[in-house]
Design brief:
By secondary structure, the protein is α/β, with parallel strands linked by helices. It is built from 15 helices and 13 strands.
């Protein structure tokens, strides 16, 4: 069986794709999986690190604002379509899986044009433009949220939830290992600040601007993922140098971070929502205002309305985010309520369920 998986750009696309690939390998001993990504994007390093082969396309997103970069966009699309078609001819996949992102468009379009069945995986409550365009060519569309028939044909939709990495399914017994890994005090409460795989300026500004509040919380320690794009701006801040703060560009062991965290501060990306639902993490969500159709606010409110998370507006984060998180750390009852309710929204079998659908499509083909 040969499966081609395409997409990427951010961890929200890449890690679900890897989780699907892992589930496929566990189900099918005789399987060959090839990823197709965008050259220069993070999938070109993260996918090989997970043990999979990847081919790159010279594709980039269309800029929403007027810019000369858009002049080259049609040429990049044509070049990527030709390259994707060549990859497909040589690899001869039985089925394709599109997870969204720049590379997914040319790869999945080329695949569908050759009559190869296609499964799409949509992580958000508001679909990305790539999956919207490809939806008509897909055999199945796996969604992380119910009631997505506003965007996709009802007969194609399968409500599976978002796949998460298998190492997140059991984090409860990793507290001691996590303390050792991050250099933390096992007796202190821990706040985890994660701005997605690329970092989030607002969350960083909130931490950097609340040095005194962080310093005064002597019974609390912080793991602060700054993000590669913002590392130079914040890694040398006064807050990052405090004894009760572990500041890092990227957290490569999120299983340990979840294992030691008592409360999390995070954006409301689809992957983050899915992960905290699996691990039951009490979280203060700060939806990014810089996403299409404000879908992070929709993601967040789905939890807030179920008393499964707290929310702070991006515009208010610098002033109140750290204090809200510290208050939650000191409210055990509220933590337990959020944790219990968010676990009800988790779908730990998502990767296996999607893998089963992929196998069915491949066998039918």
């Amino acid at each position: 069986m040969r499966v081609l998986i395409s997409g990427g750009g951010t961890g929200g696309h890449i890690y679900p794709a890897i989780a699907i690939a892992d589930a496929l390998k566990a189900k099918e001993a005789n399987i060959d999986i090839l990823f197709v990504g965008a050259n220069g994007r993070m999938e070109m390093t993260k996918v090989p690190a997970a043990g999979y082969q990847i081919e790159g396309l010279d594709i980039a997103g269309f800029q929403r604002k007027l810019t000369v970069k858009n002049l080259s966009f049609p040429f990049k699309v044509m070049k990527s379509l030709l390259r994707a078609s060549k990859i497909i001819r040589e690899f001869k996949p039985d089925v394709g899986v599109g997870v969204g992102g720049y590379a997914s468009g040319p790869a999945m379009y080329s695949l569908a044009s050759k009559g190869i069945p296609l499964l799409l995986q949509e992580q958000n409550s508001y679909p990305g433009i790539t999956n919207k365009i490809l939806a008509g060519k897909a055999s199945k569309i796996c969604t992380a949220y119910p009631s997505m028939d506003e965007f996709f044909s009802q007969e194609k939709i399968v409500f599976t939830g978002n796949p998460v990495r298998t190492d997140l399914l059991e984090v409860g017994d990793k507290h001691q290992e996590a303390c050792s890994h991050f250099g933390l005090d096992p007796q202190k409460k821990t706040c985890l600040i994660v701005g997605g795989s690329l970092g989030a300026r607002t969350l960083n500004q909130a931490m950097a601007g609340q040095t005194e509040a962080v310093k005064a919380a002597t019974d609390v320690q912080f793991i602060w993922q700054i993000g590669a794009a913002h590392e130079q701006a914040f890694i040398n801040s006064a807050t990052a140098k405090l004894e009760n703060v572990v500041a890092t560009k990227f957290i490569d062991r999120m299983d340990l971070a979840y294992g030691v965290g008592d409360v999390m501060i995070a954006r409301a990306g689809a992957l983050t929502i899915s992960e905290l639902s699996i691990v039951g993490m009490p979280t203060v969500l700060v939806p990014s205002p810089n996403v299409s159709e404000d879908h992070q606010t929709k993601n967040a409110m789905a939890l807030v309305n179920s008393d499964a998370a707290m929310i702070v507006k991006d515009s208010e984060a610098v002033d109140r985010l750290v204090s809200d998180a510290i208050s939650l750390l000191n409210d055990k009852d509220k933590q337990e309520t959020l944790s219990s309710n968010v676990r009800k929204l988790g779908k730990p079998s998502a990767a296996n369920d999607i893998a089963e659908l992929v196998i069915q499509l491949a066998n039918k083909n």
